[in-house]
Amino acid sequence: MNNCAIIFGGSGFIGSFFTNYLLENSHFDKIIIYDLEEIKSKKSEFIRKQFELLLHGSIECIQGDVRNNISIPDIASFKIQLIANFAAIHREPGHEDREYFETNLLGAENICKFAEQVGCKNIIFTSSISPYGVSESPKDESTLPIPVTAYGSSKLVAEKIHQIWQAKDINNRRLVIVRPGVVFGPGEGGNVSRLIKVVIHRYFFFMGNESTRKAGVYVKELCNAMWWVLQEQKKNGETISLFNASMNPGPSIGQYVKAVCKTQGIKRFIPTVPYKALLGIAYFINTLARPLGIKHPFSPVRIRKLVRSNNIIPTYLIDHGYQFQYSLDSAFADWKKSCPEEWK
After folding, report:
1. Taking the mean position of all CA atoms in its chain, how far away is CA 292?
2. Torsions phi, psi for 59 (to 5 deg)
3. Which label site among 20, 25, 150, 216 has the fewest CB atoms less than 10 Å from its CB?
4. Are 24 and 54 in contact (CB under 8 A)?
5. Long-range contacts made by residues 338-344, C-beta under 8 angstroms, separation at least 24?
6. Distance CA 246, CA 224 (A)
7. CA dist., res. 73 & res. 71, Å (int)
8. What are phi and psi of 104, to 5 degrees?
9. What's phi and psi for 61, nearest 5 deg?
10. Could you report the per-residue pLDDT of 108-125, keeping only the tens digit for each?
11. Alpha carbons 54 and 4: distance in angstroms, whole number
């Protein structure tokens, strides 16, 4: 019977890299990717190309919706040793409040139910730092979560659903919950990708937020850390582990900008624009664009997030002796080497 891992949300950004990580390290004979989106529909050309290289007899792709009961053909012929739950609605803004709960809660319930049915004893769940809420003070895994958004609330409840699954067989089931900061790397297409573009093309400016910290982790570091924590559990006898995934300390926006310039070999003078003026412009653009259905990057929500620190400390990894593989500079250098077209 083949040893198998199932990755829910496996054709996404984190899922594609974790699939590659498991294959490169020969951890499983078979990997099943379960996702609502087909790989060919992925917006990121890099992710599509990566899967073209990965697709072979060791990978099976199944299109399915975690909001519904999960069924995988011939699942009895596999020994399911790991389930990774990366399936989520996560972009803020971009969704109605109910959508976060529908996917993140129903998905957690159905995946945990499926794990019971197939007898899987190990789950990795990607949560978020969003449950910590908004505060300038440093936060680690011992900080009381106080989510202020539907996304953060849905992720916190999803954590509890997974913990209930683990508690039903507390001595034999192992659960890893990771709360990553912004995850960046090739094919990301998110905030860090946008930052790279605007710095390179000279239309980035500070708004009194140069020292604002933004917890972040390179996607390859995240994959290594998730697997490392799962193995660490077996060594120290833990059956449930919750850890923050971020560089230590989390870089400031100014440090992100300097790293972009260093990686690209450029010099940039970055002007400062008053925050209130920029927020007013964002509201104006949003008011004009919304009735016309025009998408734009100047959302007031995004502008407000840029001046708020996410000062997240990865205390679990530090205390357990995890050796970080990437600095911000080396992560950006690896990103550019892997996907140079995203640095043009």
Report:
1. 31
2. -125, 135
3. 25
4. no
5. 338/46, 338/185, 338/186, 339/46, 339/186, 339/187, 341/46, 342/46, 342/186, 342/187, 342/193, 342/196, 343/196, 343/200, 343/263, 343/264, 344/200
6. 12
7. 7
8. -75, -35
9. -105, 130
10. 999 999 999 999 999 999
11. 16
CA 229/CA 241 separation, integer angstroms: 8
In terms of DSSP H, where are the helices of the chain?
Answer: 13-24, 45-54, 97-118, 150-167, 191-200, 219-236, 253-264, 275-289, 300-306, 315-319, 328-338
Backbone angles phi, psi at 84, to 5 degrees: -115, 125
Query: How would you class 17 by CB atoms within 10 Å of its CB: exposed for 0-12, middle for 13-18, buried for 19 or more?
Result: buried
Q: Which tokens go with 155?
A: 């992720």
Q: Are 140 and 206 contacting, i.e. CB atoms less than 8 angstroms apart?
A: no
* Position 58, amino acid: S
Task: Give the Cα separation of 62 and 34 in Å (integer).
Answer: 5
Helix (H, G, I), strand (E, B) or coil at 321: coil
Residue type, 298: F
Tokens in use for 150?
A: 């539907």
Whose CA is closest to 313, among 255, 267, 264, 245? 245
Summarize pLDDT for 295-314 with one digit per residue, the tens: 766 677 777 777 777 899 99
- Measured in degrees and rounded to the nearest 5, phi and psi for residue 31 equal -125, 125
Rounded to 5 degrees, φ, ψ at 53 are: -75, -30
274 CB burial (10 A radius; 0-12, 13-18, 19+):
exposed
Evaluate whether 66 touches 125 at the Cβ level (below 8 Å): no
Scored b (16 or more CB within 10 A) or e, 203-219 reads ebebbebeebbbbbbbb
Query: pLDDT (tens digit, 9 = 90+) per residue, 54-108?
Result: 666 688 889 999 999 999 988 888 899 999 999 987 665 566 888 899 999 999 9
CB atoms within 10 A of CB 189: 16
